[in-house]
Amino acid sequence: MSIFSGIWVPLITPFADGEVDHAALRALVRRYADAGVAGLVALGTTGEPAALDAAEQDAVLATILDEANAAARDAHDAPALPVLVGVSGNHTASMRERIEQLNPLPIAGVLMAAPYYIRPSQAGIVGHFTALADASEKPVVLYDIPYRTGVRMELGTLLTLAAHPRIHAIKDCAGSLDTTLALIRDGRLRVLAGEDMNLFNTLCLGGSGAIAASAHVRPERFVALYRALAAGRLDEGRRIFHALAPLMEALFAEPNPAPVKALLAAQGLIRDELRMPMTRAGDALVARLLALEGDLTAA
């Protein structure tokens, strides 16, 4: 089975007094390893990489990899939790350089969105990803998120890229049922839901899992949801999803990762800090999140 299945958590970057809080980051890695998630994403959108300089990005990745390995050793030499690394940008040559820097590291692969803002043609997208996948020694996971990049990766483009030997999976945020189903039926790319509310239907259609920011909060419930559906226990999976859905929806009521950070802070796991231009979740939303999380605890 491909490692690109199950529930992956796109890790937030905790801050304390404006600096990266590496102790809190280590605790989060251990928390999600203990919850049984399939893998972690470092420096994805949820991790606020645009607010980190190059040295901070490298330090965050080093902490995540080190703690993932430590958790594996403590679990009696279990395999280390796989870590995907987000690589973003719209300058192909610079991204190739970044990938070459990552090649020697013990990572599971790289997660890459289409070039943002410049809105290239579909041929340009194919050329961009082909150049980057050629440079990578690790698997590539495509990240189709047109509302952030400004350009959609058309189905034909995705199917063309699926032929590349190092392009293994896709984080699917395009919101197109037709595209999701076509990719699942094609079978060459593992389809990971990238919109948390699409997790249930993607898995039921035959998708492989999800990269879900909301899994920060109740990771064991998300793992249970995946395992129930993977085992064909549809009624159980539906019950879990219906219980989680109000919280998932609320966690995206304001820009991610502010709501996730607010709830983790309320649980005492991190400080409720973001870097500009991101701002903290509003008080009304925080109260709503706490009530919804409390409902899950009581259930």
UniProtKB/TrEMBL annotation:
Pathway(s) served: Amino-acid biosynthesis; L-lysine biosynthesis via DAP pathway; (S)-tetrahydrodipicolinate from L-aspartate: step 3/4
SUPFAM superfamilies in the record: Aldolase (SSF51569)
Pfam family, one: DHDPS
Chemical reaction(s) catalysed: L-aspartate 4-semialdehyde + pyruvate = (2S,4S)-4-hydroxy-2,3,4,5-tetrahydrodipicolinate + H2O + H(+)
Keywords: Amino-acid biosynthesis, Cytoplasm, Diaminopimelate biosynthesis, Lyase, Lysine biosynthesis, Schiff base
Secretion signal span: none
Residues where pyruvate binds: 46, 211
GO molecular function: 4-hydroxy-tetrahydrodipicolinate synthase activity
Annotated catalytic residues: 143, 171
UniProt xrefs under InterPro entries: Aldolase_TIM (IPR013785), DapA (IPR005263), DapA-like (IPR002220), Schiff_base-form_aldolases_AS (IPR020625)
Site (Part of a proton relay during catalysis): 45, 117
Subcellular location: Cytoplasm
Chief location bin: cytoplasm
Keyword field contains Amino-acid biosynthesis: yes
Its EC number(s): 4.3.3.7
Keyword match Lyase: yes
Similarity field: Belongs to the DapA family.
Protein purpose: Catalyzes the condensation of (S)-aspartate-beta-semialdehyde [(S)-ASA] and pyruvate to 4-hydroxy-tetrahydrodipicolinate (HTPA).
Protein name: 4-hydroxy-tetrahydrodipicolinate synthase
Lineage: Bacteria, Pseudomonadati, Pseudomonadota, Betaproteobacteria, Burkholderiales
Gene transcribed to yield this protein: dapA
